[in-house]
Design a protein that fits this description.
The protein is built from eight helices and four strands, in the order αααααααββββα. By secondary structure, it is of the alpha+beta class. The chain has helices spanning 2-17, 32-45, 48-54, 57-76, 85-92, 105-119, 122-127, 180-193, and strands at residues 131-140, 143-154, 157-170, 173-176.
């Protein structure tokens, strides 16, 4: 990831220093930086319908597949490893685990992430007061990679890091691909709630 980041930063710097022919977007289409800014800010503020609208259809489908694996793991877990029903209902809704495979990907994304951030309020705390600066993008065929600087604050602690957001064309528009951070968050949380109970200390 660091190698990719430094490469993208170098290319962005080179593009800024040297005039280059750029493909003009279709009339009314947003530039990659605009799409990335909309997505990043909406994700930080948890405006999830805006986030979903900025995502590529394949990203929403990939999210659904990850969540389906989590649901399958919960359903297949032995009784002593299943999370309480109240936890399943809080995350997946009253319809239970089965809806993961039948609900449209966009609606599933919005509903589940909304439930997750309510169930785990620390996620909201992580993004509250965050700031982002989009620096530029590098195109790669039907993909583009947007480089941005994120400043995260929690209490008196502040952390700044560089990130890359990948987008893919959907018709004549750029849409955001599923990020590793979001995929890891959901799959990791799924493993956690289906994890075996801690062994009792030996007497």
């Amino acid at each position: 990831m660091k190698t990719l980041l430094f490469l993208l930063l170098a290319l962005v710097a080179a593009q800024a220093a040297e005039p280059a022919k750029k493909i003009q977007p279709a009339a009314g289409a947003e530039m990659p930086e605009e799409v990335a800014h909309t997505y990043i800010r909406a994700m930080a503020d948890l405006h999830l319908t805006v986030v979903a609208d900025a995502m590529h259809p394949s990203a929403l489908e990939a999210f659904q597949k990850i969540l389906a694996k989590v649901a399958d793991a919960i359903a297949a877990a032995p009784a002593d490893r299943k999370p309480p029903q109240r936890v399943v209902s809080a995350l997946f809704g009253d319809s239970g685990l089965a809806i993961v495979k039948t609900e449209p990907p966009r609606e599933l994304f919005v509903r589940f992430v909304s439930n997750l951030t309510t169930f785990v309020p620390q996620i909201r705390e992580m993004t509250a007061g965050s700031e982002y600066q989009v620096l530029g993008h590098v195109e790669e065929g039907d993909l583009t990679h947007v480089v941005f600087r994120a400043t995260l604050r929690r209490g008196t602690t502040e952390m700044t890091k560089m990130e890359v957001l990948s987008l893919k064309r959907d018709g004549d528009r750029w849409k955001v691909l599923l990020t590793d951070d979001l995929a890891d968050l959901v799959s990791g949380f799924g493993r956690q709630i289906a994890a075996p109970p801690a062994a009792a200390p030996a007497k």
